[in-house]
Write a structure and sequence with these properties.
8 strands; single chain; alpha+beta; 8-stranded mixed β-sheet
C-alpha cells in the first residue's frame, strides 16, 4: 500500500496525521485531502500531476475485503411483480437528457442502478446511491457503521428528522416507489454529483404483461465524465475548444442512440444471468 500523504503531496494537498491514520480513510478518499490555497483555475499543471498519479489509484483502491459484497439475484421472486415505466431525467443538465425505462417492480435497487448507468451511457466508475426523503439506499460498503444510542432523549426527539440508511442490495424498486407519480433520486459520482430524478410514470399489474427490462425512449447524450458536473458540462458546451476541453473526450454533436442504450442494458442483464458481475 502506498503512503497516502505522499500521494496527496504530489497533488499539492496536505493531510493531517489523524486523517492519514484513519482506518476508514480509503472509503472517503474524495474528502481526505485538505486543500490549501488551491483552485482548478489557478493551479497550472494540476492535470499533469494527476496523470502521474493515476497508476497509483488501483493500489489505493485495492482493498477488496472492504469493497466487496455478494450481488443478490436480479429480482425478488417472493413478491408479486408489476410492470413499471420510469421517466428519469438529469437535474440541471444544460442539455435536456432523459431516459424512459421499463422494469419490473421486483428488481433490486443495486441492479436498477446499473441499468440506469448503462441506459444513460455512464462508465460506471463512480459511487452512487438512491434517496427518497430522509431514506438513503446505499452500497453495502458505504453504509454508516456509527452506533446509535436508542436511549438518548435528544436522538429520540430528532429521530423523525434523521436520515435512514438501507442496503440497496436488499431493497426492491416496488418498496420505494409504490404509486404512480412517486419520485426518488439517483446520484451518480459524488464528486460531480449527477442527480437523476426517477419518476414512476405508469404501473401495469396485468398478469400477462411482459416483464422485460428495456429502454423505451430517451433524449440527450451522456454528459462527459469527471467534467465538474452540470457546471463543468455547461462550460464545455460554451467553449468546446477551451482549457477544460483538453482533458475530456467530448463531442458536442453526439445524440442519444436507443439501440446502443438497449445493447448495454441487455449486456449487463446477460452478465448477471451468467454470474459475471
Amino acid at each position: 500500500m502506498i503512503n497516502l500523504s505522499d500521494f496527496f503531496d504530489t497533488l499539492g494537498f496536505s493531510m493531517s496525521e489523524s486523517e492519514e491514520e484513519s482506518p476508514g480513510v480509503l472509503k472517503r478518499l474524495p474528502a481526505v485531502g485538505k486543500i490549501k490555497k488551491f483552485s482548478i483555475a489557478s493551479e497550472k499543471g494540476l492535470w499533469q500531476k494527476m496523470e502521474t498519479c493515476l497508476d497509483k489509484l488501483p493500489e489505493i483502491y485495492s482493498d477488496d475485503e472492504e469493497r466487496s459484497y455478494e450481488l443478490p439475484p436480479l429480482l425478488d421472486n417472493t413478491r408479486q411483480p408489476s410492470l413499471y415505466v420510469l421517466y428519469i431525467t438529469i437535474e440541471g443538465c444544460p442539455v435536456k437528457t432523459w431516459r424512459r425505462l421499463q422494469v419490473p417492480s421486483t428488481i433490486r435497487l443495486i441492479h436498477l442502478a446499473h441499468i440506469i448507468i448503462r441506459a444513460f451511457g455512464w462508465a460506471g466508475d463512480h459511487l452512487y446511491q438512491f434517496t427518497k426523503g430522509s431514506n438513503f439506499y446505499k452500497l453495502p460498503y458505504c453504509l454508516s457503521d456509527a452506533p446509535v444510542d436508542a436511549d438518548d432523549p435528544f436522538l429520540a426527539t430528532m429521530q423523525p428528522y434523521l436520515r435512514k440508511e438501507y442496503d440497496m442490495c436488499h431493497v426492491t424498486l416496488g418498496e420505494v416507489l409504490a404509486a404512480k407519480g412517486e419520485k426518488m433520486k439517483f446520484e451518480y459520482d459524488f464528486g460531480d454529483s449527477w442527480i437523476h430524478q426517477v419518476s414512476l410514470s405508469s404501473i401495469s399489474s396485468a398478469p400477462d404483461a411482459p416483464l422485460s427490462i428495456r429502454v423505451l425512449s430517451g433524449k440527450g447524450p451522456c454528459p462527459p465524465e469527471d467534467c465538474g458536473g452540470v457546471w463543468g458540462y455547461a462550460e464545455l458546451l460554451e467553449n468546446p475548444t477551451g482549457e477544460l476541453a483538453q482533458y475530456h473526450v467530448f463531442d458536442p454533436t453526439e445524440t442519444f442512440n436507443l439501440e446502443d442504450a438497449n445493447f448495454f442494458v441487455q449486456e449487463y442483464l446477460e452478465e448477471v444471468e451468467e454470474g459475471k458481475v
